[in-house]
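Query structure, 255 tokens:
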């Protein structure tokens, strides 16, 4: 059942591609939410409007997060290490581009330490719900994404997910399929577990749908203490998801 009182919600990675959508959607629902954002740089803050509710902090630095989490009811974690493409790749010549992580910004630092720092800070501040967006693929240590830039990104993300599940704080872990920059609300969403969806044709999802799922999870008790994979059917195949309570009720896996 939905809770009627406005919740104070912090979105981290609010300058990122999904984080921006979550921040904007929450801002549009002022009757339900008081929103804060956390971004890494002043440039990212400007990019999302530069409001006073946007905190500039680095999640690798535990102390820098503390001001942003004071008094929040819920935290949505949308930070991630971001692989960069090595220069010189020419798609006309075929082959695959190579990727790297900048020094200090490897998944171990951003996805493990950075997410652990956020969970610890939020827990210390008495947060009542943490929503973490992770990625499908984490059940397979040999997943190709782990070789990207030698970052083991899915391994470190999964370690942070486990830390959250063990934290004692009510949580929702959303392991998204391949993210697409397409309109939200147009597709039927599918929840799964243990990467089973990766064996099917439905293993992608628009960022806008992931963003909406994060926000719906804030309001729906059935989302708590759950970890699930999330993907979408192609547009025009199936019925666009409107009832997120029913969607979250389809799964009961705690991790
Ligand atoms: N790409 C996919 O297909 C895919 C699939 C499944 C799941 N996912 C996951 O879904 C989530 C959302 O993805 P996305 O593509 O929307 O994200 P994104 O655009 O890559 O955004 C990540 C954000 O994290 C921030 N960040 C990085 N290091 C930080 C630090 N040390 N302190 C504070 N903030 C930091 C970045 O800020 P700066 O811009 O300032 O660096 C950026 O805004 C990520 O966890 C991603 O791994 C992605």
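Result returned for the query:
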């Amino acid at each position: 059942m939905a809770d009627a009182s406005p919740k104070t919600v912090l979105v981290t990675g609010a300058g990122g591609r999904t984080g921006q959508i979550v921040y904007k959607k929450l801002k549009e629902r002022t009757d339900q939410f008081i929103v804060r954002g956390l971004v890494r740089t002043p440039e990212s803050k400007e990019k999302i409007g530069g409001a006073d509710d946007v905190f500039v902090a680095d999640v690798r630095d535990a102390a820098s997060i503390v001001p942003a989490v004071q008094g929040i009811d819920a935290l949505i974690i949308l930070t991630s290490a971001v692989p960069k493409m090595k220069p010189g790749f020419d798609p006309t010549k075929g082959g695959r581009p190579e990727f790297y992580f900048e020094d200090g910004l490897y998944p171990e630092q951003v996805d493990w330490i950075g997410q652990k720092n956020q969970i610890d800070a939020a827990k210390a501040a008495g947060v009542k719900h943490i929503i973490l967006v992770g990625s499908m693929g984490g059940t397979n240590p040999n997943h190709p994404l782990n070789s990207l830039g030698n970052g083991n990104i899915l391994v470190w993300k999964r370690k942070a997910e486990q830390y959250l599940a063990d934290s004692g704080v009510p949580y929702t872990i959303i392991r998204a399929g391949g993210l697409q920059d397409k309109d939200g609300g147009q597709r039927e969403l599918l929840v799964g577990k243990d990467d089973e969806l990766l064996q099917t044709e439905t293993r992608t999802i628009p960022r806008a749908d992931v963003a909406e799922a994060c926000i719906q999870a804030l309001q729906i008790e059935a989302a708590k203490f759950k970890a699930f994979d999330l993907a979408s059917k192609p547009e025009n195949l199936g019925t666009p998801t409107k009832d997120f309570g029913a969607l979250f009720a389809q799964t009961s896996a705690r991790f």
